[in-house]
Design brief:
The chain is of the alpha/beta class and 220 residues long. Helices cover 49% and strands 13% of the residues. It holds the Pfam family GerE.
Amino acid sequence: MIRVLLVDDQPLIRSGFRALLDLEDDIEVVAEAADGSECLELATEHLPDVALVDIQMPVIDGIEATRRIAAHPALAGVHVVILTNYGLDEYVFDALRAGAAGFLVKDVMPEDFLHAVRVAARGDALLAPSITRKLINRYVTEPCPTGAGTGLEELTSREREAVVLVAQGLSNDEIADRMVISPLTAKTHINRAMTKLQARDRAQLVVFAYESGLVAPRNT
């Protein structure tokens, strides 16, 4: 059962998302919060698998709430998905840096919303290749060409290859096919890279890959 925490200062938004989630046999909404402060309290109390967090809220905003969740050892298993009205707005990259697993626009189709919750619960990043390119092209304009001092030297060649493929939006199965290895081995490469780079999840690997210059931004 996937345990979900809903965090939004608009009751109508929360009730709409909850109505969708309550119809699913494998998803349970364990709590709702109206601001970032409540989010932190309820996340600590309920330890959800996924926290759907509005990016702009009173008291504590979604970015700061995400940052505090990511820094809390007891909340290491909570995958934060940022909710935004504006798509690739100025806050999204900050949210990924803070530790968010990805983001959703609030007018997302119901089936895509439910899929995203399940993807986040698995620990995968919610960044399709097209969205990744747009995001990085907008916010990362001068990546370091050598990656010096970024932690790249700690990675094996296979781990680097796996990080590049994560940054391209590939799933574990797709990475395994591309690298001609088993999905379990692909997952091992990714997990070791995350450990060495102190990345909380795959989304942070994506950020690292572009900021270090391991993957270069390209125009759409």
